[in-house]
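Q: Convert this sequence to structure tokens.
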Amino acid sequence: MKNAVKYLLAGWVAGISYVVNAQSGDLKHWPKGSSPEEIGLKVADRFVATPHPNFGRPGPPNSITYPEVCAWYGALTFAKLSGNKALSDQLEKRFEPLENEEAKLIPIPDHVDHSVFGAIPLELYIETKKPKYLTIGKTIADKQWGSPEGPRATAESQKYYDQGLTWQTRLWIDDMFMITAVQSQAYIATGEPKYIERAAKEMVVYLNELQRPNGLFYHAPDVPFFWGRGNGWMAAGMSELLRVLPASNPDRKRIMEGYKTMMASLLKYQAPDGMWRQLIDDPESWPETSGTGMFTFAMITGVKNGWLDKATYTPAARKGWLALITYLDNNSDIREVCEGTNKKNDHQYYLDRKRITGDMHGQAPVLWCATALLR
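A:
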């Protein structure tokens, strides 16, 4: 009888503890069906089953697109963190045709959106140690910092190259995931400091040029709007870079300052339901999932690494995750994703962007969040 009472009390205490943790912003206990393990697996399986996308256009792309790269990277890291070897093998198998009959789908690394592809073979090398992946990824990372070449090279490209930056610099906030991802991966894969030093130097230039006093970022110097996913790329890029940037790096302090300033601002703009909007500071703008996913990822990463105050940011990160996953449909496709967006000095242009479902711009951040929650 005593043992029965003891077990009943233990179960009651555990239940109360679960509720308290859940309500106070715990990042480990989740309602049924909302855990990172469950959601991550569904979205990763959806990725495996999806052909190479082409920005919503019919037919296959001419080369692998950057949203696919971002989702692929997220699926790989999720598979690794969740210990799902079968999923890891499926994700590696997706690469095999690119070594043979689909080799033409490997992007020419002459633009930030193309060069980010290098993050995939580099992650595959980190996970498998197969030299062929290192060769492909390292070549792309090095070309990004090589001398300007090809039809995309301009006088401005040479100017940036002469400053020790990548010739692919263009000062769009999107770049700060595209550039830093491949260079950070090259650093992890090789241990060579030059890769992470490149990424950090580039990040500081973008921070100095684009971050506003409120902590948010214009899409570009001539586009004074706080576009959600654009800012999301910056948030995710800083988070990923800071995870691997050595404490001794002279640029770390500046990047951390930019990151914390941004997170404090995002905290103020998070809607009561946990979402962020297409234009972050426009309360009439629509809730948008890709930006919300990226901001949630950045906050989870900051809490997990001790950069952000746990009591302040954990509830916001939890609320962001639980809001985000309500937009997943029965196919594990996420809704309300802003379509691929150019820059334009027009407020209405951003409000009128199409809202699409299942786009890799939105699938990727869900996978990043699932991975971050498992770290």
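The longest strand covers residues 337-338.
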